[in-house]
């Protein structure tokens, strides 16, 4: 697949199954991630790889977090929360480690980590895999941050789910003209 087709045709894959990426494919994915644009070469990111049985431990952590908000969480919601990480064979937690910097605002560092996530998704697509960027309340919960070992200046940019797409998705057509304008406007516009 050529690079432009990849960029034009990538879609998120919410339904993913085994097999997940091989270790060689993961290396390709992480190599793409760390080529993200990065003001000041701060490398303000790190990644946690969670696969196989370890996904259940993440589900347990999500459940603990949900129970800390609502100790009476109904069994059905508890089960749903625990099962979230099982939606794909492989998850990468993308963490921004943004520090105060004289020239590079924290926001720019977080954006840079977001670019890592997008590079990973594009690399997965190029490898014939599927991927989906997810966040939800479990990306922001202090219990989850603690359980995953985040320090205060770190934040979760996303959980990127990887696997084999269960089925292909149609690529939606978007009109670029809705989002693009020339500035300053000319009389002919
Ligand atoms: C920062 C971020 C967080 C997201 N979190 C979720 C999420 O928690 N759940 C979800 O269904 N989609 C989430 N999405 C959206 C999907 O990853 C995806 O972009 C969306 O479903 C559109 O599909 P497409 O990428 O094929 O256009 C998130 C996207 C971004 C950029």
Looking at this protein, list some descriptive labels:
189 residues; alpha+beta; NADH Oxidase; binds flavin mononucleotide
- Total number of distinct structural domains: 1
- Shape from CA axes? globular
Helix content: 25-40%
CATH class: Alpha Beta
Q: Please report the number of helical segments.
A: 6
Structural classification: alpha+beta
Q: What is the terminal-to-terminal distance?
A: 36 Å
Number of strands: 5
The helix/strand series, from N terminus to C terminus, equals HEHEHHEHEHE
Average residue-wise pLDDT: 97
Bound molecules: flavin mononucleotide
The CATH architecture name reads 3-Layer(aba) Sandwich
* Biggest sheet descriptor: 5 strands, antiparallel
Multimer state: single chain
Question: What percentage of the residues does DSSP assign to strands (E)?
Answer: 15-25%
Within CATH, the superfamily carries the name NADH Oxidase
Could you say what the CATH topology is called?
NADH Oxidase
Whole-angstrom Rg: 19 Å
Poorly predicted ranges = none
């Amino acid at each position: 697949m050529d690079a432009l087709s990849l960029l034009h045709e990538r879609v998120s894959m919410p339904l993913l199954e085994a097999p997940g990426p091989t270790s060689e494919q993961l290396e390709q994915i992480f190599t793409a991630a760390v080529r993200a644009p990065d003001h000041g070469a701060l490398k303000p990111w790190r990644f946690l790889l969670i696969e196989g049985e370890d996904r259940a431990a993440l589900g347990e952590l999500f459940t603990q977090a949900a129970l800390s908000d609502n100790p009476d969480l109904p069994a059905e919601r508890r089960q749903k929360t625990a099962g979230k990480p099982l939606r794909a064979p492989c998850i990468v937690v993308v963490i921004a480690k943004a520090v105060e910097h004289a020239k590079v605002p924290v926001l720019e560092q977080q954006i840079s980590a977001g670019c890592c996530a997008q590079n990973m998704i594009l690399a997965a697509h190029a490898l014939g895999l599927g991927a989906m960027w997810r966040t939800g309340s479990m990306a922001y919960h202090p219990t989850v941050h603690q359980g995953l070992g985040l320090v205060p200046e770190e934040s979760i940019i996303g959980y990127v789910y990887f696997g084999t797409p269960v089925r292909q998705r149609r690529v939606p057509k978007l009109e670029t003209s809705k989002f693009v304008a020339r500035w300053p406007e000319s009389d002919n516009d």
